Amino acid sequence: MASIVPGNVGGVRDKAKGASLELRLKRVRDLCTRLEADLVRPRIRTSEACQSIIQYTKNTKDFMVPSAWGSIDKREDPYNPPSDRGCCILM
């Protein structure tokens, strides 16, 4: 129930207070939604994640680190610009 406050004409303070409370409620609901989404996200142990990263780096060639994998054929290197370019085209 709204209280009568001197200088409160037409319940302006009550409306502002209600809008403020609605905004706070919306923020709390949004936070709960985000927390529920975090709760259902699949998780793995840190040791399992580290083992997965180690296996990936051992089994996947990185063309940017030739010292680890040796020299790489130009045809296999995805970062090598194609050599069969023609001449430039001007428009």
Key structural traits:
0% strand, 91 residues, GGL domain-containing protein, mainly alpha, elongated
Give the arrangement of secondary structure elements.
Layout lengths: L11 H29 L5 H14 L6 H4 L22
Protein name: GGL domain-containing protein
Model description:
This is GGL domain-containing protein. The chain has 91 residues and is mainly alpha-helical. It has a domain at 12-69. The chain is 52% helix and 0% strand. The chain is built from 3 helices and no strands. It starts with 11 loop residues before the first helix and ends in a 22-residue tail after the last helix. The mean pLDDT is 79.
Summarize the structure.
The chain has 91 residues and is mainly α. The protein is built from 3 helices and no strands.
Structural class: mainly alpha
- The overall average pLDDT, rounded, is 79
Radius of gyration: 31 Å
Our estimate of the beta-strand percent is: under 5%
Shape: elongated
Which sheet architecture does the biggest sheet show? none
Taking the alpha carbons of the first and last residues, their distance comes to: 75 Å
Listing every helix as H and every strand as E from the N terminus to the C terminus, the arrangement reads HHH
